[in-house]
Amino acid sequence: MSGIDAVVFDVGRVLVQWDLHRLLARVVEDPERLAHVTNEVITEEWHFRHDAGEALADLVAERKARFPGNDDVLDAYATRFLETIPGNIPGTHEIVRELSAREVPLYVITNFASPFWREYRASEPLFDLFGDIVVSGDEKLVKPDPAIYELAASRFGHAPQRMLFVDDRADNIAGAAALGWNVHHFHGADALRADLVARGLLD
């Protein structure tokens, strides 16, 4: 047996597709302006500040003042977040359900802004299968800060050495591994399934 007692998942780009550009392209038709909005106004780096717990209203107001003439896209960002999620990552929801059916404890650590998480969580019953979910926006801690992994381990009730953490970002994986977690750098459901089979967690 693998010695793994629990599996901990990331959300964005592991369980669910996420694409800011998808929403922005619905608001901005002009290609030149869209490139400016994507590269300067609403970037993933700026969005990360919301994941880290900064208030949505403050972030949007700051951006409107810095980039006048972009109220339409910033208002869309604030109110139409679910349109950045085109669907699930193929195969991973099935893996979660199979692990749950085998009574493997399941948890989540996600960099996700609090209001956006509440909106998305209400639309996705898969998360009923998870014992606990650590959301960066709620805790004002973000991966790969060691503090978020330490908080998660204390809440989940398993030693890091007994958990497998699945994430798509190399820095997040490295952060967890440095604290003794078992890790899987996600590149698709097939490779994840093969790793879980090799560890004896799936057939």
From TrEMBL:
Sequence intervals crossing the membrane: none
UniProt superkingdom: Bacteria
Xref: InterPro entries: HAD-like_sf (IPR036412), HAD-SF_hydro_IA (IPR006439), HAD_sf (IPR023214)
Protein name (database record): HAD family phosphatase
Organism: Novosphingobium aureum
Species classification: Bacteria, Pseudomonadati, Pseudomonadota, Alphaproteobacteria, Sphingomonadales
